[in-house]
Write a structure and sequence with these properties.
Number of helices: 11
Structural class: mainly alpha
Helix content: over 70%
Shape: globular
Distance between the termini: 26 Å
Number of strands: 0
Order of helices and strands: HHHHHHHHHHH
Amino acid sequence: SIVGLRRTLGKQSLYLSQLRKFATTQKQLSEQLNSALAATDLEVAERLVHTLKGLAGNIGAQQLQQDAAAVEAAIHSRESVHNWQPLLQTMTTRLLSLITQLDQKLPQSKLCQPEVSAQIDRELLERVCRQLGQLIEESDAEALDLIETHLALLRAAFAEKYQSFYDAIQKFDFDQAFAILQQVASIHKISLD
């Protein structure tokens, strides 16, 4: 939760992991936004920008948070894209420059090397999968927090399905996310009940 994150900002390792997570999850944002706008899917576009606004706030990127808030409001009011194209441009430029800086400055962590296969803790995986199952069934975006808490474990367990699982939850496509979770659970012989 955002309040929780604000409290953790004093702890450097947690803050670094927030920054790293921000850089990793928001890298694809301009592509995702462009494809949502190309498909005139304004709801998805609005959600993507809303997520960025929250994440920018978490890491203290206030200028970016304000940019995102302005774009979100413009999308929400269903103005013509031409009116807020400059706002969008400003936001994505600022976002990309921030990500570039983060990539250069952040110490590399295991998060950036998904090919390192973590030993999978079966009991933990089972617990996390069941919690995820419940959150997804309730269409609860807290599922993202849970994924980020157990990132290494889930990356290892989900392997090549991880990205599509994460993307599905980010797009609030909970049916798709649940389908992937079930596939992974059956591979690891985990019962979600």
